[in-house]
Amino acid sequence: MYHDYFQLKENPFNVTADPDFFFSSKCHSEAISNLVYGIEQRKGIIVITGEIGTGKTTLCRTLLKQADKKNKFALILNPNCSELQLLQMINYDLGIQTKKQNKFGLVQALNEFLISQSSKGSNVVVVIDEAQHLKVSQLEQVRLLSNLETEKEKLLQIILVGQPELYEKLQLPALRQVRQRIAIHFHVQPLNKEDLKYYIHHRIAKACINSDKPSHVSFTDKAVAAIFHFTKGSPRTINMLCDRALLAGFVANTFSIDEEIIKHCAKEILYCEYN
Q: 259-269 and 221-231 helices cross at what angle (nearest 10)?
């Protein structure tokens, strides 16, 4: 609705995990660096945790977009399934075909695929998002898959991405062998106050019709402070609030998003007041 008014080609504050809008805050850049290091060094199991809406899925999609073309990825977005179905999803996403759909046949086909890819210099990575939903039996299966290796290196890199409950689940005594195989654990933090202003500018600039000519819309310093107050730096909540603020700016026929607009929008969609 407001795209033409603000000279935007698309919504700058969509809540979808779009890697084109990835913002390289210090924390998110460190997360990407840890993922790339873990994959390149064939570390086995990597764990990424973070609160709801901190951009973990966007991190995953950005990793896939930026990764070396030699890497083969399977991205599992909903692991709320059985152990057998999880194996089937991994093999399907990697393009592995086998007539035997039992666990033995699937693991055998996966192992053959991994050896073949390793001989070509390729690395295979399985990314499991929302991994806090994995059952203990599934996490144990993940451990067994991480055992697929040669004498010198791991054949399969596994990235578990989830909310803090994932870390808590991994502390269970039944999962001590899984914990021992976690080479890297990184916790994604929300954006800080300093990042927020640049985050908003970055997303608006990405969405501009003319990349050489910035949009007329701007957020005042007090508006940015109010956004941080209401969102605590959570990218998803920031996007929801800024999207509604642009709509309010359009309705009010203004290019300046001020503190009052943010307060009004926060009350509408977040049901909270500025104290």
A: 20
In this structure, are residues 38 and 157 in contact, taking their beta carbons and an 8 Å threshold? yes
The model carries a pTM of: 0.92
Q: Is the pLDDT of residue 162 over 80?
A: yes
46-73 confidence digits (pLDDT tens): 999 999 999 999 999 999 998 888 899 9
Average pLDDT, integer, range 81-105: 92
Which amino acid, one-letter code, is at 12? P
From residue 20, alpha-carbon distances to 12, 65, 206 in Å are 10, 9, 8
Strand partners for 8 = 208
Nearest Cα neighbor of 14 from 259, 238, 214 is: 238
